[in-house]
Amino acid sequence: GVSAQPEEPWVAEHPAGARFRVAARPGASRHALAGLHDGALKVQLNAQPEKGQANKALIAFLAKALGVGRGDLGLVAGQTSRTKTLAVAGLDAGELKARLKRVLEE
Questions:
Q1: What are phi and psi of 7, to 5 degrees?
Q2: pLDDT at residue 98, rounded to an integer
Q3: Average pLDDT, the chain
Q4: Do the Cβ atoms of 83 and 40 come closer than 8 Å?
Q5: Under the phi-then-psi rule, with left for phi > 0, alpha for psi from -120 to 50, and beta for the rest, what region is 96?
Q6: What pLDDT does 4 receive?
Q7: If DSSP codes are grouped into helix, strand and coil, which group holds residue 1?
Q8: Nearest to 103 by CA among 51, 52, 25, 31
Q9: Which of 30, 66, 85, 98 has its CA at 20 to 30 Å from residue 45's CA atom?
Q10: For 46-57, what is each residue's pLDDT tens digit?
Q11: Terminal CA-to-CA distance of the chain, rounded, Å?
Q12: Residue 3 above 70 pLDDT?
């Protein structure tokens, strides 16, 4: 049988800073953070997945929420999938986690 991989933390160190997993849900009535689900930050987006619109909206929304520049946030995996990995430059995993937690508690 295949041994189950231990659940990867949803926030981890990344060479340029830190990375985190996001479960994007396009087609929502407004942009919103919907908490943690299955090891990913659930983000509802008022954007359609066509032509990368949802990805652009996701990055703009999360950059604002985290207080980082849009250029400091990048998609490193899952461009066309609903579960994506984003990397943020200049924040370590601890700081990223703290900011995400603060945003989720608002």
A1: -60, 120
A2: 94
A3: 90
A4: yes
A5: alpha
A6: 53
A7: coil
A8: 31
A9: 98
A10: 999 888 899 999
A11: 43
A12: no
Q: Which residue has the tokens 């954007």?
A: 47
Question: Amino acid identity of 6?
Answer: P
CA atoms of 10 and 13, how far apart (whole Å): 10
pLDDT number for residue 8: 65
Residue 87, SS3?
strand
CA distances for 4 relative to 1, 8, 47, 51, 58, angstroms = 9, 11, 35, 35, 30
What is the per-residue pLDDT for 16? Answer: 85
Could you tell me the pTM of the whole model?
0.87
∠ CA(79), CA(66), CA(43), 5° rounding?
Answer: 45
Angle between helices 53-66 and 93-105 (to 10 degrees): 90
Q: For the residues of 26-51, what is the DSSP string, one character each?
A: ES-SS-EEEEEETTEEEEEESS-SGG
pLDDT at 84: 95
